Amino acid sequence: MDLPTLWFFILAFFFVGYFVLDGFDFGVGMSLPFLGRDDTDRRVLINTIGPVWDLNETWVIVAGAFLFAAFPEWYATLFSGFYLLMLLILLALIARGVSFEYRHQRPEAAWKRRFDLMITVGSAVPAFVWGLVFANVVRGVPLDEGFDYTGTLLDLLNPYALLGGLTTLLLFFTHGVVFVSLKTEGEIRERARRLAVRSGLVTIVVAAAFLAITSLMHGTLASILLSIVAAVALIGSFVANLRGREGRAFGLMAVTIGLAVASLFAALFPGVMPASNDPANSLTIANASSSEYTLTVMSWVALVFVPLILGYQAFTYWIFRKRISRAAIPAAH
User: What's the structural domain count of the chain?
Assistant: First the structure.
């Protein structure tokens, strides 16, 4: 395996990790209006991800840095052509992060409601827009000979991409609600489990439609097999949740999202951004990658630091593994 191909798979790994980990963060944020009946409930929900949300978000920072360094042409085309969508994701993430830090700074109910709304919107927007972005990348966009995007924002809002956005939105929402049932006790745990059953049914239908269309239009043998296993894992998560097996349901949801994202990268391979107007203008692993020297240096850096990142992440989740209940929430001041 040559270095550009290796770095394509490394990049896929980091995006898989980002969507699995920050995906349930988004889902918890979106669940506030559905599961948070009062301020204490909402504080319980926020506390389930309080110790880990910022660590989960670093995965996209690392993925973006690796994309810039390993595939500069891909990075330039993606971020210049999709800059409005990327800006929308960035603003939503900023609003969400600010809300986590400032929500508790004042006791007024109106103050907290505004930041709760920012958390909900700041979680829903990236969950939807990331699906738009990846669906358009797999579908292909018009590119000129210099690999510049020649379409408009409306071209990116095509039915297939909108279905992709709805799929990631529902997957992350269900993933987050299952996480809440895994991390909480008492009535909120039961409400989360019931909500996961309802959202899971809708998610199965929408995700199956998107993966089926992707397989028919852009699928390879590898991507089709990954999609099938992802669909089986999604159904398995739904069944586990019905039986009250939150740990198994959450694990299978993580497998579903991971394999679904992996299937999109498999559908791309060996391309990275197909040109819908002229295949000759498509970006591939070969013409989008950095020099051999750059990729060699990056490989040694990744060999040292990636295991440290994974180890620290695992340690953090182990430390904050206990369930949270309303009784554990101190009175608001």
Answer: 1
